[in-house]
Each structure stands twice: as structure tokens, then as C-alpha cells.
Amino acid sequence: MPQTLLALLALSLASLLSLNMQRAQIHSTQNRTGHEIELLASAAGSYTIDLLEAQAFDRATVPSAISATTRDELRAAVDNLDASDFAPASTFGLSTSGECDIDQLWADTVDCDDIDDFHGIDRQRVELAMGRTNDKYPFDVSVNVRYVAGALGGLDAASTERTSHKELTVDIYEARPVGAPVDNALAPIATLKRIISLDRGKIIRDYIRDRGDTITDLEEDNDVLDQDGDDDEEEDYDEEEDDDEDDD
Asked: What is the secondary structure of 57-71 as a DSSP string?
């Protein structure tokens, strides 16, 4: 009898030890999987922010909102842009035509051509392609845009006034089954934020890309405007001066 009890005790201890080891392995696997999902979610968030950042800063800065026929007019129009020209925060998003489609940015739709048009997107599906096999990892993302104060008031401090800085916030959630309702109690896997400031050079580049044919003197000397709005002519002049000094 004592030997039987000892055997049962040994068996129980062995089973308990094995169970604890399996629990530890499962916990380790869950942690590793959780970290991998967080990394993928962050990558999906970065992908989304990069796509949106490529859009115009505001509806006042899209090429179709600028009128210019010469390089000087283009520079002046861009230099004269002021925060008072930008859309009020109350008009962010698409109030009458649903949501902008992040996967349709290539379509260049008029309604979805600047950053704040994407404000209010709620749990929209984004698929992240990974690896050589191009496997798709789906996530749901929500987007919010707001004005922030800028360097003088704390760059990420919310502003009730229009400024030259917008904060883009993207929440990334686990992809819900197709057709399933949104679970508002579900916490995001990750949240990414980026402050986007008015870039006058980008405005000029976008204009030349889309409407360069309206600038009558753009191709006269085969010159283009650089990111600061200056033309390459000045750089060539500086190089010539340096060459003359070397000859002396």
C-alpha cells in the first residue's frame, strides 16, 4: 500500500511538472505571437500614415486650388498661403459621401485629395503585404486628424485654431470578420501618431507634376523648381563662379 501511494504521488508530481512546462511553453508562444502581431500592426499603421502623408496638406494646397501661369506666380501663390486659408477642423472628413477609401488613393478622387479628408475613418480594412510570398495580413484602421499648435505651443498640443501643423492619428485593430459589426469595446493593437507640417516645396512639386503644362516659362531653359521653390539656375550660377575662381 505505501508503495502504491508513493507511485501515485510520483505520477502526480510528474504530471504536474509536465503540465507546468506545457503552460510555460504556451505562454511563451502567446507572448511571441502577440509581439509579432504588434509589429505587424505597427507596420500597417506606418504604411497607412505614409500613404496619407503623400496627400496634399489641405484643400487649399491641392494643385487644382492654385492658379498660376508663370514660375513667379506659382512661387507667390504658394508663399502667400496662410493658416486662414485652410479648412476649419469642423469640416474635416467627408460628411456627405461616406469615407475615403485608403486602398483607392491611386484613383486620385477629388473628394479624397488632402489629409483631413480621411478624418473619421472607422475600422477600415487595410491589407499589409509581407515577405517574398506577398502574403496579406489584414488589419482594421481608424483615422483622426486635428490641428496642433506647433513648436511655439508644444508641437503636439491640440489647437482650436487653424495652424500649419496637423496631427495624424491611426489606431490599428485586429481585423474583424467580413460583415461583422464594429466592436467599440475592442482596444487597438497599436496607435501611431505623426505631425505633418505645411511643406511649400511639396506644394510646388505636386503642382508641377499635375499641372506643369500651365506654367508657360517652365521649360524655356529646361529648369525646374527645387524643393525650396528656387530654380536650378542659381545652383548653376554658383558652380560657374566657383569654376572661375579656380581658373584664377
From this structure: SSTTSSGGG---SSH
